[in-house]
Write a structure and sequence with these properties.
The complex is a heterodimer of chains A (about 120) and B (about 325). By secondary structure, chain A is mostly helical. Chain A has four helices and two strands; from the N terminus they run αααββα. The relative contact order of chain B is 0.16. Chain B has helices spanning about 5-10, 15-35, 40-60, 70-105, 110-145, 155-175, 195-200, 215, 220-250, 250-285, 295-320. The chains are: A mainly alpha (about 120), B mainly alpha (about 325).
Amino acid sequence: MADEAAVPAGALGTFGRYAGPATLILSSLADGAKHGYALTKDILSFAGMRLAPGTLYEALTRLEAQGLIEPLPSEDRRRPYQLTPAGAAALQAHLRAQRQIAEVGLRRLAGHWGTA
Amino acid sequence: MTAQARAARLLRWYPRGWRDRYGAEFTELLIADLADQPRSWRRAADVARAGLLARLSRAGLGGQPLGPADQVTASLACLGGALAVFLAFGTMVWSQLVIGWQWAPPGSRATTVAVLVMSAALGLFLILATLAAAPVGWYLARAAARPGAGRLARPGTLATFSAAVLIIGGRHVQNGWPGTGGHAWPHQGLVPGGAAAFGWAATLWISSYWAHPAALLALPAAQIAWMAVTPAALAGLAAGLIMIVRRLGLPARVLQYQARLGAVATAVMGAFLTGAACWVLAGGPGPENLFRPGAIDVLALVMMALALAASGQALRRAWPAAQP
């Protein structure tokens, strides 16, 4: 079935267990640059999940190394990060793939359980 | 303790390079997080885990991949450190066996094969070390003749001093104990008596005496001092050589060549460990109990297995990055 074809992993597919935090960070940066604490607060507000500092910076360093985000000049000692065009494209591809998975799951749930 | 001090303490989990780049901003995040949640073991555990992973990454062993050249250099340096640990424990096992062989050949086939395999492996290590040192020596000579050679002075001094302590001290100690070859029959051994005796002297510190302080203190003071100095000298030699290689900035083709040698060295480590395990598990004591394995030999097997695992992991990280 064409609509259930395998979903390409995209750039974030190489992140392994960091894909979750990376998706949250990129989604948070999608509406503008933020520093570490602002990212934590924003992610808590839209995902209900508090990223611990070590996990947050693990993902930030990986995203920066892959060119998906970039640092801006420091504000005091806080350094904001912003999405790069490559990061925006990677996030879009990843979220589309996730949406495709979600749609398949919801459709199957509706077909067999009637709960979707 | 202030939030600043607590954040600074947490930051120490990370390696220096990481702290230089992210330390200030990470400290700010930690201070804000400490204000939100003054007590959190989850935060402490998370920072410790992430910091250790960052250290593993810098060491070329895991975590986030580095740039290709940095990855190969870091992983090869780690492989070199693991090889140094392996050789220390391996030489301890091997030297007692070849010294025993000088007195009487092993009584069991398993011990005979094990000693032959370990001796051949050590010979291969020597060849590999020569092959690895040749290009490094060439680039070292070139770097020493150019401006900026001062960065090599400290590791060079450390390696030279440590090697001098090992060689001079080892030669002195090896000649002070007749059991290592000072008897009438060193010629009937498997390897030259001097090589076996030096191996014994250089690894005298790997000893179960450390677990028996009363027995340890009964040894001559000079011997105890030598047992304390040797591991520091070995560590200094390994650290000095690793720092030299890291600071030389070897070109990609040389790193690729060294990665190939590292792969062969890892395979030879496996062969040596198989031989040592064969002796410990199936060898038996032999004539006059010359080849009886002890608890320290089991510990040596464990240490060699860990060093081999670290070496394999370093190689897995270095190999893809070394490919053109």
